[in-house]
Design brief:
Layout lengths: L4 H19 L7 H9 L8 H5 L3 E2 L2 H8 L13 E3 L4 H13 L6 E4 L15 E4 L10 E6 L3 E7 L4 H9 L3 E3 L10 H5 L8 H4 L6 E8 L4 E5 L4 H7 L7 E12 L3 E9 L2 H11 L7 E8 L14 H14 L1 E11 L7 H9 L9 E7 H5 L1 H11 L10 E6 L3 H16 L4 E9 L16 E9 L6 H18 L4 E3 L6 H8 L3 H11 L16
Parallel strand pairs: 2-4, 3-4
Antiparallel strand pairs: 1-2, 5-6, 6-10, 7-10, 8-9, 8-10, 11-13, 11-14, 12-13, 15-17, 15-18, 16-17
Helix pairs in contact: 1-2, 15-16
Bound molecules: flavin-adenine dinucleotide.
């Protein structure tokens, strides 16, 4: 119990008074929040609301920040307040307040707000700014046990770049990554956390040993495969629906010092995918991805500057000649012990691949520079005012058996032919066996599926055209019977969500009833709230 009987009696009286005096004027959700706003002027009452009051912000700056995200598409999900917690008890108290209210208000954790469709917003509710926990919370603690090996306990609010820096001090690092590291642990674990390491290590959600979670009832649990396992699997890939992740125990391995980073160019899609699929079927490489170069795109882009100016001009001629060029990207890690053998090992791994002769490029960089490769592009775009622009992104998992239909119908006939896409197209296969079906995350029902990222950047005039194209792409896939799954999904109707989760829908619903029965958490996903 958070409060003694005495205090809770007093809370009840104060809350009742405040609520009843406002209830006739103000609508549905707002009563408990308004009472907090009012109670901030009441000193020393020791109530939940008084504890929360100084940390709840109602200023226009706070509200504006919490009303939108990296996508810059959704701006109308305006919250009533933003909580800047300094301790996880603040989050617990907030959820408890909502849960115990006769009219519970919605609450969304906001990690780094790098969603693109308002997933971390809470219209008329409270957004919890997770980053404000960072000064007072667990940070990153590295440990070892004989049963678990090396692992790190990290705060759910932490950015992956900070986890990387802290673990590297011990010569260790997590094994599975996202391409970009300025995302929070809680944010990526609520989705999956995908990059070129996933074919071998699985996504980030497959590399978690334990979680600390506050459920939609305001209760804190530690959960793992063996303890409170239902909550553990629900939260991984659970789109923030079952609880707020306050801590995660992440698998670590010895960190390499450097990496050999290779890009190979293809004009033939079938050779490109054949080689990608071969490389994810063998062991030896640490990262396999791929992306497309076409129309006016430059070989270098914000995701990483890789090629020399001379290479860029040769590649531009290749694009002019073939229209679409496919870039296969691989990495092999190495350290002092393997520095003399790495070139030979890499040569063996890449033997027999069918890239265009002469179009293979290699770089040798530090492990840190490789993992943090997107950052310099981000800073450059920021300085040009091109980072905070609309991002109508669409991420899909496409089953291997239909990747040629997808390529012809979407890449060739739409993206290349229409030439309105500005941004990156990622396309690489991964192994489903590295995912655990008990987790909430969904994938296509095939052993190998492709992760396709259509990462468009728009401006106020053209983003809608790209978004229309996204709709056409989804419609084409539906009509062609391509049983894809959206990654970082965005749907607006209940039917679409039921279809998205497929066989997992009933367990998803049961878990919601179990852990967030009043449907308080992450309303911006629009799974159980259709506002
Ligand atoms: P937010 O956008 O703040 O939140 C996302 C969702 O998670 C919301 O529903 C929110 O309520 C919930 N949430 C946030 N924190 C918590 C928590 N602690 N507990 C429970 N729920 C929580 N994804 C990949 O997989 N691979 C990539 O390579 C990749 N690259 C990206 C590059 C860029 C530039 C961007 C903008 C995004 C990229 N993403 C990638 C997508 C990214 O993983 C997701 O958008 C992720 O949700 C962002 O994390 P965040 O901390 O900003 O989360």
């Amino acid at each position: 119990m958070i409060m003694s009987k005495n205090i809770s009696g007093r809370v009840y009286i104060i809350m009742s008074f405040l609520i009843s005096s406002l209830i006739s004027v103000l609508g549905r959700y707002l009563n408990p929040l308004i009472s907090i706003k009012s109670s901030s002027s009441i000193p020393n009452h020791g109530t939940l609301s008084v504890k929360l009051a100084p940390k709840l912000h109602f200023t226009s700056d706070a509200i504006k920040m919490a009303s939108t995200d990296f996508g810059k598409i959704i701006t109308s999900n305006i919250p009533s307040a933003v909580l800047f917690p300094s301790h996880i008890d603040d989050i617990k108290n907030l959820i408890t307040l909502s849960y115990n209210s006769t009219t519970p208000f919605p609450i969304a954790a906001r990690g780094h707000g790098h969603s693109v469709r308002g997933q971390a917003t809470a219209r008329d509710g409270v957004v919890v700014d997770m980053k404000s926990l960072s000064n007072s919370h667990v940070g990153t603690r590295v440990s070892w046990t004989s049963s678990l090996g090396y692992y790190a306990d990290v705060g759910g609010e932490q950015l992956w770049i900070d986890v990387l820096c802290a673990t590297l001090e011990h010569g260790l690092a997590p094994v599975s990554w996202t391409d970009y590291l300025y995302l929070t642990v809680g944010g990526t674990l609520s989705n999956a956390g995908m990059s070129g390491q996933a074919f071998y290590y699985g996504p980030q959600i497959s590399n978690v040993l334990e979680l600390g979670v506050i459920t939609g009832k305001g209760e804190f649990f530690t959960c793992s495969k063996h303890t409170n396992s239902e909550l553990f699997y629900a939260v991984l890939g659970g789109l923030g629906q079952f609880g707020i992740i306050t801590r995660a125990r992440i698998v670590l391995d010895k960190a390499p010092k450097r990496v050999k980073w290779v890009r190979m160019l293809y004009h033939d899609f079938s050779a490109f995918t054949r080689d990608q699929e071969h490389l994810i079927s063998i062991t030896g490489l640490d990262y396999v991805e791929g992306h497309l170069l076409m129309n006016q795109s430059s070989a270098n882009n914000w995701r990483s500057s890789f090629f020399s100016p001379n290479d860029v001009s040769n590649i531009a001629s290749l694009i002019t000649q073939h229209k679409i060029i496919y870039c296969l990207e691989v990495v092999k890690y190495y350290d002092d012990f393997t520095t003399h053998t790495i070139d030979k090992e890499l040569k063996v791994l890449l033997e027999g691949l069918s890239f265009n002769p002469g179009f293979v490029f290699e770089k040798d960089v530090t492990f840190m520079d490789f993992l943090n490769r997107v950052r310099s592009g981000e800073l450059q775009l920021q300085s040009q005012g091109l980072w905070d622009v609309p991002h109508p992104w669409l991420n899909l998992f496409v089953p291997k058996s239909r990747i040629f239909d997808f390529h012809q119908g979407v890449i060739v006939n739409m993206i290349h032919a229409r030439n309105i896409t500005r941004g990156l197209v990622l396309l690489y296969p991964t192994n489903r066996k590295r995912w655990d079906d008990r987790m909430s995350a969904v994938t296509p029902d095939e052993d190998i599926f492709y992760s396709v990222g259509l990462l468009c950047s728009g401006d106020n005039d053209n983003w809608k055209a790209m978004d229309e194209q996204n709709k056409d792409i989804l419609e084409f896939c539906e009509k062609a019977g391509i049983r894809f799954k959206q990654y970082l999904p965005h749907y607006t109707t209940r039917e679409e969500w039921i279809d998205h989760f497929g066989e997992k829908w009933s367990i998803f619903q049961e878990r919601k009833t179990m852990f967030d029965p009043k449907m308080i958490l992450s309303p911006g996903q629009r799974i159980f709230h259709h506002v």
